[in-house]
UniProtKB/TrEMBL annotation:
Species this protein is from: Microlunatus phosphovorus (strain ATCC 700054 / DSM 10555 / JCM 9379 / NBRC 101784 / NCIMB 13414 / VKM Ac-1990 / NM-1)
Protein name: Branched-chain amino acid ABC transporter ATP-binding protein
GO cellular component, one term: plasma membrane
Pfam families: ABC_tran, BCA_ABC_TP_C
Gene (UniProt): livG
Keyword set, alphabetical order: ATP-binding, Nucleotide-binding, Transport
InterPro entries according to UniProt: AAA+_ATPase, ABC_AA/LPS_Transport, ABC_transporter-like_ATP-bd, BCA_ABC_TP_C, P-loop_NTPase
GO biological process terms held by the UniProt record: D-alanine transmembrane transport; L-alanine transport; L-isoleucine import across plasma membrane; L-valine import across plasma membrane
Length: 292
C-alpha cells in the first residue's frame, strides 16, 4: 500500500487494483447504453460515478455487479473475470445497495443484517433442520456480527425494530449494514443520499469514510455534486454511455465539458451543478435533497 494525499488533504492508504472494467459495452437492441468504458478502482479508494440522467450510470453499475453480462468487454474483480451471477459476485467479495431501498420491511433491523451474513456461513440444510450445536454456534456468530454492524452504522439501538418502521435515513444505513455483512472487499452504493436531509447526508458521508478506513474500496453513484466532490478520491463522468473524463474532483470540476454535458441534457441539472461548482459555500444546506 502507498500513502496518497487526497484533494481534501487527507492521507489515505490506497492499495492495488481491486476492480477493473475493460472496454465494457452494454447494448439494448439498437441503443448503446454503455460504450467501451474503462474504469479502475483500487483498494481503499472512494470512486464516484456521475453523469446526467440517462448517461448509463446504472447500466454500468449493473455490469460491474454481475446483474448484466456486458455485450462486450469484461470486468475483472480481485484478479478474476467476474461471474455474471449476482450471488457469485457477492461471494467473490462485492456488495451493493440499490437506488430504491430493498429491505425486508417485516423483519427486524437485526434480521435484515443477518440475511446478508448467511452467504458467509457453512451451515448446510441438514444442520439447519436438525438445529444441532453447530447450527446454534453459527446462528450466535451471525447474530453477534449483525449486531456489531448495526453498531458500526449507528443503528445499534434499532435491533428489534421492524425495518419498515425506521426513518428513511436509517433504512438506507441498514442497507449498508446488510451489504457489509457479506464481508465485501468492494461496496457499490447507488445514490446513497437520495431523499436524505442535509444532516443525514453528512452522516452518510462520515459513514462512507469509515467504511473506506476499514480498507474497503467504495464506488458511489450520486446526483449530489457537493457530496461526490467532497467524498471521492477520483470521479468518472459518463455522458451518453461514454467516459467523458476521469480524474480527481478538482480535475473533473474544472473541466468545462462536464457542465456542457449537463446543459445538453437538462437545465435543472446544469444550473445545480454550475451553482455548486462556482459558489460551493452558498449552497450550504441545500445539498441533501437527492433525486432518486
Ligand atoms: N433494460 C433496459 N432496456 C432498454 N434500455 C435501457 C435499459 N436500461 C437502461 N436503458 C437505457 O439506457 C440508457 C442509460 O440508462 P441508465 O438508467 O443506465 O442511465 P443513468 O445514468 O443511470 O440515468 P439516471 O441518472 O436517470 O438513473 C437510457 O437511455 C435508458 O433508457
Amino acid at each position: 500500500m502507498t500513502a496518497v494525499t487526497t484533494e481534501t488533504g487527507a492521507t489515505d492508504s490506497i492499495g492495488g487494483v481491486i476492480l477493473q472494467a475493460e472496454n465494457v459495452t452494454m447494448r439494448f437492441g439498437g441503443l448503446t447504453a454503455v460504450d467501451s468504458v474503462n474504469f479502475t478502482v483500487h483498494r481503499g479508494e472512494i470512486m464516484g460515478l456521475i453523469g446526467p440522467n440517462g448517461a448509463g450510470k446504472t447500466t454500468f453499475f449493473n455490469c460491474l455487479t454481475g446483474m448484466y453480462l456486458p455485450t462486450s468487454g469484461q470486468v475483472v474483480f480481485d484478479g478474476a473475470v467476474l461471474p455474471p451471477k449476482p450471488r457469485k459476485v457477492v461471494q467473490a467479495g462485492m456488495a451493493r445497495t440499490f437506488q430504491n431501498i430493498r429491505l425486508f420491511g417485516n423483519m427486524t433491523a437485526l434480521e435484515n443484517v443477518m440475511v446478508g451474513r448467511y452467504c458467509r456461513t457453512t451451515t448446510g440444510p441438514l444442520t439447519s433442520i436438525l438445529r444441532g450445536p453447530k447450527f446454534r454456534r453459527d446462528e450466535a456468530a451471525v447474530r453477534q456480527r449483525a449486531q456489531e454492524l448495526l453498531d458500526f452504522v449507528g443503528l445499534g439501538h434499532t435491533t428489534d425494530q421492524l425495518a419498515r418502521n425506521l426513518p428513511y435515513g436509517d433504512q438506507r444505513r441498514l442497507e449498508v449494514a446488510r451489504a457489509l455483512a457479506t464481508d465485501p472487499k468492494l461496496i457499490l452504493l447507488d445514490e446513497p443520499t437520495a431523499g436524505m436531509n442535509p444532516q443525514e447526508t453528512r452522516q452518510a458521508e462520515e459513514l462512507i469514510f469509515r467504511i473506506r478506513d476499514l480498507g474497503l474500496a467504495v464506488v458511489v453513484i450520486e446526483h449530489d455534486m457537493r457530496f461526490i466532490f467532497s467524498l471521492c478520491d477520483r470521479v468518472l463522468c459518463l455522458v451518453q454511455g461514454r467516459a467523458l473524463i476521469e480524474g480527481t474532483p478538482a480535475q473533473v470540476q474544472s473541466d468545462p465539458r462536464v457542465i456542457e454535458a449537463y446543459i445538453g441534457t437538462g437545465p435543472e441539472d446544469a444550473s445545480a451543478l454550475e451553482a455548486e461548482l462556482q459558489h460551493p459555500a452558498e449552497s450550504d444546506g441545500d445539498s441533501g435533497d437527492g433525486d432518486a
